UniProtKB/TrEMBL annotation:
Lineage: Bacteria, Bacillati, Actinomycetota, Actinomycetes, Micromonosporales
Keyword Iron-sulfur recorded: yes
Molecular function GO terms recorded: 4 iron, 4 sulfur cluster binding; metal ion binding; oxidoreductase activity
Key words of the record: 4Fe-4S, Iron, Iron-sulfur, Metal-binding, Oxidoreductase, Signal
Protein's name according to its UniProt entry: FAD dependent oxidoreductase
UniProt-listed InterPro entries: CBD-like_Golvesin-Xly, FAD/NAD-bd_sf, HdrA-like, TAT_signal
Protein source organism: Asanoa ishikariensis
Length: 667
């Protein structure tokens, strides 16, 4: 009989199984069968299986590692949400459950969402959702081969011989291994700008996460004949926009704390101080940090990520990863762990660094109550990009910018087009990073159904919601955990509709799919359909009036319409902007304001709401709550254009943003 282990796991034939939904005898069968077989226990994969179960079908999840939840439970607790209001369906439910877990309140369709959380809280929420849906998860299942009948997958076989038969399949892995085994076309690396008519793909030497002080790349500073320091490419930099096979850097998202119980950063076996010589020189040239981010996620813990020219990203250390064997990937992941642990140890201990840097770093440590089976270190490598499918529609920069809307959306994305650096190079005798792109998008945009299904001739019963068809730079916007959940739900929905109709996934009528997605709470257009009594005024509306000078920008994503405006952080008190709605009828309206957030924004922006009873002044902090509607209260308004909302800039302590205002009738 299978043996029971912790977290409700069964041990079956050498595999650990999160036991829910199937009997022990079924779990132990030589061949496990289900309507839907999901490969990859990422957040997108788990949501796909949950959706299939909610549609009355059976589903199993196969995971090559022993970790459940991918990056969502692996340290990425500061969710890259973009426009949070566009995250609906099961993804939205997950984040509402996160809020409920902290608040101790029941989950309802109108519960608030929370996008920052500790890793163990995310794991608990997923465990509860999987148990409620009855989804078994098999761990340690590494693909050996697949069997096909014509253009259909029949089963996948693990390296231990265990077989899983399915009628439909979803590849939700970060690497795209199942789609590869199934014979589906894919690519790795950066396209040239010319490939899809883009402007920010390919080679990009930009200012983001760049060396701000001159640093020599050579072993002996200033001496090219001495050779290059570790991690620096000897290949000359190609022209801007050139395509190549390089991918953006990986790292681990650390959960840090300054609590007394913190675990000091370990000095890893294989520590090599030479790997950090560039950083030492950068500090000696004048850089004082920060060397990593410390975004709070709750309970005094952080989601800590790469920051600056030399940080937790192991630039150039991942090129072989996407197509490597499991053993080689393990080695690459181990090298990333050694590098990053060594970096933190170096920052906290190397006597050549200023004492201020060492003490500041040593004040942090790994959270002792997170990732307890791996010494507080996250088990999930942040695979930001690997294989990407090639299908009937490849998402591109034009789609992200809203310049080429797609007719068959199955979900929305809204995050900045974001690529971490891809290589470290020599330019003019100095070290430079290359590949960083951070370009905002106008707002949420649709992701094509055709981009998550392969060519029918290649595979008729497989969907790929994670390694979907997208150019390198478009994937940089789409590759966010909430989006993977959204696409996972849509993929499973399409698979179950195809199963019911005995058709290929490519033949599912979009109208049928759209209707079911909307019925299940997915959001497929932006702005969303107007609610009764809702009036939205964008900064470009003809009714908007201004004083002073306002500058249009798209630098930070999450804005309404085509851009947002700011005051240039100048002419304080002179610059003003007034939103004036045309209200269809008198009544009580809740007034909302929208902006894009950044640390350089003002935290004390005065807002005057002109309503039937007079003027109410509120103050908003534009350093947070970006890309969402922030309520300023409810007030009585007459019909017509007598009401307004005025953004003022007097005595403000940063950039003041004007994006859009909203009136929603509540009585």
């Amino acid at each position: 009989m299978p043996s029971i282990s912790r977290r409700g796991l069964l041990r079956v034939g050498g595999l650990a199984v999160l036991a829910s939904g199937l009997s022990p005898s079924a779990l132990a069968a030589p061949v496990v069968s289900a309507d839907l077989v999901v490969y990859g226990a990422t957040a997108g994969g788990l949501v796909a299986a949950i959706q299939a179960r909610r549609m009355g079908r059976t589903a199993v999840v196969l995971e090559p590692s022993n970790h459940l939840g991918g990056l969502t439970t692996g340290g990425l607790g500061q969710t890259d949400s973009g426009t949070a209001a566009s995250i609906k369906g099961i993804a939205g439910e997950f984040y509402r459950r996160i809020h409920a877990a902290y608040a101790g309140t029941p989950v309802t369709p109108t519960s608030p969402a929370r996008f920052t959380f500790e890793p163990h809280v995310a794991r608990t929420v997923f465990d509860e959702m999987l148990a409620a849906a009855g989804v078994p998860v098999y761990f340690g299942l590494r693909l050996a081969t697949v069997s096909k009948s014509g253009n259909r997958l029949v089963s996948v076989i693990g390296d231990n011989g265990q077989a899983f038969q399915g009628l439909m399949f979803v590849d939700a892995s970060y690497e795209g291994d199942l789609m590869d085994r199934a014979g589906v076309s894919w690519t790795v690396g950066r396209e040239s700008n010319a490939t899809y008519g883009e402007t920010i793909n390919g080679v990009q030497v930009r200012s983001g996460h760049q060396f701000n002080f001159p640093v020599s790349p050579y072993v002996v500073a200033g001496s090219p004949s001495s050779g290059l320091l570790p991690g620096i490419s000897s290949t000359p930099v190609a022209p801007a926009g050139s395509g190549d096979g390089l991918i953006q850097a990986y790292n681990y998202r650390m959960c840090l704390t300054q609590a007394a119980s913190r675990l000091p950063f370990p000095r890893p076996a294989g520590y090599d101080a030479a790997r950090y010589e560039l950083l030492l020189r950068y500090v000696q040239a004048g850089w004082n940090g920060p060397f990593f981010t410390t975004h709070g996620v709750g309970a005094g813990k952080t989601d800590s990520n790469n920051n600056g020219a030399f940080s937790t990203d192991l630039i150039g250390g991942n090129y072989a990863y996407p197509t490597a064997s499991y053993a080689v990937r393990d080695s690459i992941a181990a090298d990333h762990r050694t590098y990053q642990q060594g970096l933190m140890w170096f920052l906290a201990n190397d006597p050549r660094l200023p004492a201020s840097i060492r003490s500041a770093t040593a004040s942090w440590g790994l959270a002792a109550d997170e990732f307890t089976t791996s010494g507080g270190w996250p088990p999930q490598l942040y695979v930001r990009e690997a294989r990407r499918m090639i299908s009937a529609h490849v998402m591109t920069e034009l789609n992200c910018r809203g310049q080429s809307p797609i007719p068959d959306p199955v979900g929305l994305a809204s995050y900045t087009m974001d690529s971490h650096n891809c290589q470290r190079v020599v330019v003019g005798g100095l070290v430079k990073n290359e590949g960083d792109v951070q370009i905002g998008v106008p707002g949420p945009y649709g992701i094509s159904y055709r981009s998550i299904v392969p060519a029918e001739a290649q595979c008729a019963n497989l969907l790929v919601p994670v390694c979907l068809a997208a150019s390198h730079v478009a994937y940089g916007s789409i590759r966010m955990e909430p989006v993977f959940m959204i696409l996972g739900q849509s993929a499973a929905t399409a698979a179950m509709l195809a199963l019911t109709a005995s058709s290929s996934v490519q033949a599912v009528p979009y109208a049928t799919l759209r209707a079911r997605l909307l019925a299940d709470g997915q959001l497929l257009q932006w702005p969303p359909p107007s609610a009764p009594g809702e009036v939205v005024v964008d900064s470009h509306d003809p009714s908007v009036t201004r004083a002073g000078t306002w500058v249009s920008s798209t630098s930070i994503g999450g804005y309404w319409g085509t851009d947002y405006e700011h005051d240039g952080n100048t002419a304080k008190g002179v610059n003003r902007l007034r939103f004036r709605p045309s209200l269809p009828e008198a009544g009580t309206y809740t007034v909302y304001l929208r902006w894009t957030a950044d640390p350089n924004r003002a935290s004390n922006v005065p807002i005057d709401i002109v309503h039937s009873a007079g003027v109410t002044t509120r103050s908003v902090d534009q350093r947070g709550s970006g890309g969402s509607w922030v309520s300023l209260g409810s007030y009585a308004f007459a019909a017509g254009t007598g009401g307004s909302l005025l953004i003022r800039t007097e005595n403000t302590n940063g950039y003041v943003i004007a994006d859009a205002a909203r009136w929603l009738r509540t009585a």
